[in-house]
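Appendix B. Raw example, untouched.
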Amino acid sequence: MVTIKQAAEKLNVSRKTVEKAIRYGQVRVIKFGDLIRIPDTEIERLLGPGEYMPGVEVVKKRSPAAAKNARAISERGK
């Protein structure tokens, strides 16, 4: 079992990305009181065969104004 920091290093992502994946239920953890550990089997599952964290979908939240602005910019390029 590894810590969140160790998992981030093994998966080549930031600690915040691992924390977010845990929060969204995309990474299974084992809790010991306040301690959180990620099983080695979960790291292997996330790495998959030659892929970059296939088990984790990064979810980005945008404000309504930012989403509207992004749509306007993409429509200008069409």
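End of appendix B.
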